[in-house]
Amino acid sequence: MLLISLKLFFAILIPTLVGAALLKNIFTCTKLKRSVFLGFSYGLGQGILAQIILFIGALGGRFEVHTILKALLIVGLVFYGKYYFGLKKNSFMPEENLLDASTTETGVGAIFKGAVVLCFSLYVAMLFWKAWYWPIWGWDSMATSVFNAKVFFYEGSLENLKYVPHAPFPLQIPFSILWLNLNLGQWHDEYIKIIFPLVFLSFAAIQHYFLKYYTNSFWASLGLLFFLSASLITTHATSSYRDLFLLYYNCSVLISLMLWHDSQDNAWLILGGLLSGFGIFTKLEGLPYFLIHSLLLITCLFKQKKPLKVSILAFIKFTLPGLVIFLFFYMYKSLSGILMTEKTHMNFSGIFLDRVGWILQRFLEDLFWTSNWSIIWFLLCFAILLHIRVIKNCFRLQFLLGALVLFFGVPFSTSLIVHDASHILSRFTLSRIFLHFFPISIWLIIFIYYRVITGSRQGLDCDSIA
Predict the structure, then answer these.
(1) In terms of Cα–Cα distance, which of 414, 291, 279, 407 is closest to 343?
(2) Distance CA 184, CA 6 (A)
(3) Which of 168, 209, 307, 417 falls 20 to 30 Å from 99 in CA-CA distance?
(4) What is the signed CA dihedral for 78, 18, 173, 134, rounded to 10 degrees?
(5) CA separation (Å) from 172 to 179, 206, 282, 286?
(6) What is the average pLDDT across 135-151?
(7) Which residue ranges does UniProt annotate as crossing the membrane (predicted)?
């Protein structure tokens, strides 16, 4: 058991260190709070790992521990070498800590924060216990992730990719599972689930300090409680579905865009572009989300009224990683003769407008008549209806609300044009799609009521994202 734990630890640690090296190269003039740094490093590391495995497989290489490890070490050494060489070239490093929004809590605030920390600790312990001791479950988790990873594990290559179930689907999660089993030296159905509570923990850290930076510790802790209250989060943090990873990438991109707009630090723009690109390689929905991210970036550029040349350069910096990741995998699939499945076949000859009522009904049923989301969507509706003026006067809230509408538009528009929309609008699929952008509802609630209760007193500036 100890040996297995050590193998898993190093299998997680090495990609995370590579992600940390890349993050250090991105944020050369800004220090991030340690928990946020680790949260981003984990997601970047998993994304880099998947791209390395894809590159090895596309070249006809074998999936072996030493082959992938060598590639990871080379990439990591290049990143660290570039970082330390850059330090010598420019020894000045500001002591700014962008997300260090720590405040000293007293009285009721300290008690509330302590209670949240206790609840969160127990919650995380429960997640790791379930992930560690429960075997893989759920049809889609096996059909789209684990089975493919098992084929790659025993075949040792991508040679038979076209014959596995859902061959056109992105491969980040199967590759992450493959990497863990290669390090273990044998296939394990329980231990490989460790990556899912880790991505939950990473995003929870990022969201908490994001909310804390723009509000205070009380509101950030409240946002964390709202996040924990969604039962679907627990399900996906202890299973092998790909949706929690897409939530991580999708919502982290929005956080990066907001911080970039507020700080004008291009490091956030580059980070957001990388995370958006890795989202493309996580699920098929990652591509339309990438387009939404690009549209939101354009909105921010118009708001900033920068010169055209500067705006074009910013757009290229953001979109280039995603385009490279998408085109590389698309070309590989095309050359391998892998076509899209009937599930994703579009009907471009017309739009099924008679489905609108059915689609809206399914949306409302999932948002308000299931136990997946606690009462979060009810709270959001009340907040919007009661405080519409606050939203009209705050670009940050308009940005988030617009993003939420665009994300809802993805399953809505897709259901109008596919031949068979039943698989999209089914109870389980629709909930998983909503999970990808569910945290936006929490941010809106927190920011609206923070603005209502303390905004006028503290002079919260809503002309910027902040």
Answers:
(1) 414
(2) 9
(3) 307
(4) 150
(5) 11, 21, 5, 12
(6) 85
(7) 36-56, 68-87, 107-129, 191-211, 217-237, 267-298, 310-332, 367-387, 399-418, 430-450
User: Which whole number is the average pLDDT over 161-169?
Assistant: 88
Maximum alpha-carbon separation in the chain: 65
Centre a 10 Å sphere on the Cβ of residue 104 and count the other Cβ atoms it contains. Answer: 7
pLDDT at residue 345, as a whole number: 57
Neighbour count for residue 36 (Cβ, 10 Å): 23
**Tally of CB atoms within 10 A around 110:** 13
CB 256 within 8 A of CB 269: yes
Q: What is the pLDDT of residues 56-85, one digit of tens each?
A: 999 999 999 999 999 999 999 999 999 888
Tell me what pLDDT residue 95 has. Answer: 38
Per-residue model confidence (pLDDT) at position 346 = 59
CB neighbours of 259 closer than 8 A, spacing ≥ 6? 98, 210, 265, 268, 465
Q: Is the pLDDT of residue 99 over 70?
A: no
Helical ranges in 230-349 per DSSP H: 231-237, 243-263, 266-280, 286-304, 308-335
Dihedral of alpha carbons 221, 225, 226, 228, sign: positive
Least confident window among 23-27, 109-113, 157-161, 268-272? 109-113
Of 230, 238, 260, 267, residue with least CA distance to 436: 230
pLDDT tens track for 202-227: 999 999 999 999 998 999 999 999 99
Q: Which pair of tokens denotes residue 204?
A: 């929870």
Which position has the token pair 């399953």?
A: 411
Residues 6+ apart with CB under 8 A from 12: 42, 194, 195, 198
